[in-house]
Amino acid sequence: MKNDLSALGDLAPTRRHLFALGLVFAGAAALNVMPGVELLASAQAAVPSAAQKIADHFSSVKSMSGEFVQFGPNNQQTGGKFFLERPGKIRFNYDGAANFKVISDGQSVVILNKRLNTSDLYPLSKTPLKLLLDDKIDLSGGRVKSIKEESDLTTIQLADKSVFGNSKITMMFDPKTYELRQWTITDAQGKDTTVMIYNVKEGVSFAPDTFAIDYTANRELNTKTR
User: Which of 19, 157, 219, 222 has its CA at 20 to 30 Å from residue 4's CA atom?
Assistant: First the structure.
């Protein structure tokens, strides 16, 4: 397993600029507040009921699939299909010749690039995606850094410095249906990567191997390339 987590902010379909879709790791940048967002006064501030209802609803969605478009910090755009199952499981199949995939099995996250013949493995617990994929979206303990309620969008920004430093995840929901529209990951350098989802289906079933990680193949490939 690789331990250099700082490099992940630059990954993409060429292993650079792409992994930021939700797998950005710890860093030391200060909190970047989105314009118009009202910060909670303190970690003890009450979480607005609307935000809690949204979090509870999203937590109740145990599986979903759909399509996504990702916008990177350098204006690069990619897309593909995604599959999600709580707790902790997600898969992104990216379009393109690289046959790029990101898979979480609930414990680890693997980044696969068939074109470059690479397989990089990281702990899910050290990524902001963990907050998105938990059985219950936890808004306690000062994790909520900001909340913005508008007529057409409710934005909730979460961070957990003890887990992944100053990286943050900002989730945007429909205030009427409570459906997740998109999320943005801000890395330790203040760079944003946004994932927008559409054609979403909830309550879907997946094949047993959808979120499987071949740890043996990962180990053998990384042994050969050292």
Answer: 157
